[in-house]
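User: I've been trying to design a sequence by hand for this structure and keep getting stuck. Would you show me what you'd pick, starting by listing the structure so we're on the same page?

Assistant: Good idea, let's start from the same input. This is the structure you sent:
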């Protein structure tokens, strides 16, 4: 669930948050701040959500194309992968942008304050020593992972 942290940060800023997950992950998504959980295997998100101020796209491709329908006029689509189409943004009267966190003191300090306040929490699925990075990658590629796969460094 790559959006677990994004969802919690949005909630910490006062947003009402809807998310799509497989049905078996619904309770987990709710435990990490989702107000509305949409089962992506049984429901079409564009039929469940309307007039969103912000759509955070973590999938790109067809999912991004379907996401324009849930944005309200004057809203914004932010993608962490493929920059949203300027032509489609104009057609839907939405602004689109690409986002990647920057390793700077202000951003990291803000993230740290939200975490320290308990507004965002991690959900570690499994921890691997750095020497087992291949096994960690295999788990991400082959298994359904609920939470973060973490690599640890030796002391």
């Amino acid at each position: 669930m790559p959006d677990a942290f994004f969802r919690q940060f949005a909630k910490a800023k006062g947003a009402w948050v809807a998310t799509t997950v497989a049905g078996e992950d619904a309770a987990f998504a709710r435990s990490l701040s989702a107000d509305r959980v949409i089962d992506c295997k049984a429901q079409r998100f564009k039929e469940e959500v309307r007039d969103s101020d912000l759509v955070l796209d973590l999938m790109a491709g067809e999912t991004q194309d379907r996401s324009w329908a849930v944005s309200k006029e004057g809203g914004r689509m932010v993608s962490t992968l493929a920059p949203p189409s300027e032509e489609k943004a104009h057609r839907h009267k939405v602004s689109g942008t690409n986002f990647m966190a920057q390793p700077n003191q202000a951003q990291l300090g803000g993230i740290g304050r939200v975490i320290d306040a308990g507004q965002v929490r991690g959900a570690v699925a499994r921890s691997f020593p750095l020497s087992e990075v291949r096994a960690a990658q295999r788990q991400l590629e082959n298994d359904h992972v609920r939470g973060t796969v973490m690599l640890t460094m030796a002391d």
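That's my pick for every position. To get oriented when you compare it with your attempt: Helices lie at 4-12, 26-31, 45-48, 61-67, 86-92, 105-116, 133-142. The two ends are 29 Å apart (CA to CA).
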